Amino acid sequence: ASNDLQLAGLMISHRGGCCWCPGGADVNILDKTLMVLCRHLEGELQCLTDLAQLLDDEAGALRQMALTELEDYARRKEVLLNEQRTLARERHQLLSEFSPDSIPIPITEVIAMSPDPVAEDLGRLREELLQLADTIKEQNLRNQTFAQTGHGLVTGLFRIIGLGRFKQKSTYSANGRISNQLLAHSSFRSTP
User: Fold this and answer.
1) What is the gyration radius of the CA atoms in the chain, in angstroms?
2) Distance between CA 123 and CA 70 in Å, rounded?
3) How confident is the model over 148-168, as pLDDT tens digits?
4) Quick count: other Cβ atoms within 10 Å of Cβ 41?
5) Nearest-CA neighbor of 45 among 133, 157, 139?
C-alpha cells in the first residue's frame, strides 16, 4: 500500500495501532518478540481503557447510590482487574525474553535497543499506559471517597432517625397491649 514502507526488515504502516510489523522472510527473533510485545501492550492499553470507563460509570452510580448498578460494576471491575493482573504477568515474561539471563528488563531498555519506528511505538504505548494508570489511580481514589462519604451519610441518617426512638425493646408489652412507657412518652397523650 502507498502508506507502507519497507525498511530494515520492518514493515512501517500508518494505519493505526503499532505502526510497524516485521516484513519479509528474514524476520529475526528480536523482531518477532518486539511485535508480540507491542501487541501485548496494546492489549493492556485496551484493558486499562475499559477499566477507566468502568470507573467513570461507577462514579455516576455512586453519586446516585444505585446499589444494583454498583454490584454489577464491582463484578465487572473484578474481571478487568484479574485480566490486568494476567497481562502484567505476561508482560513481565515478555520483558525477560530481551535479557540474556531471562531476568525482565525495564521497557525503557527495550525501547533503547529497538529500531526507531519500534522505539517510537513502544515509547508511545508506555506513555499512554503510564498516563492511564495515573488516571485509574485517581478515579479509584475518587470512587473510594464517594463510597466512604455515602456510607457515612447513610450511617449518620440512621443515627439521626435512631435519636427519635425510645430506648425500649418493644412497642408492645408481654400481654399484647401497647407499652405504658410508650404511651407516657407519646406526644398525643395529654398530661394531667
Assistant:
1) 30
2) 36
3) 776 556 666 556 666 545 444
4) 22
5) 133
Contact 24, 6 (CB under 8 A): yes
- Taking alpha carbons only, the member of 99, 91, 105 closest to residue 38 is 91
- Grid coordinates of 190: 395529654
Residue written as grid cell 527495550: 110
Query: What is the residue-wise DSSP string for 59-124?
Result: HHHHHHT-HHHHHHHHHHHHHHHHHHHHHHHHHHHHHHTTSTTS----HHHHHHHS-HHHHHHHHH
Tell me the one-letter amino acid at 22: P
pTM for the model: 0.67
C-alpha cell at 135: 488516571
Q: How many other CB atoms are found less than 10 A from the CB of residue 170?
A: 8
With cell 502508506, the residue in question is 3
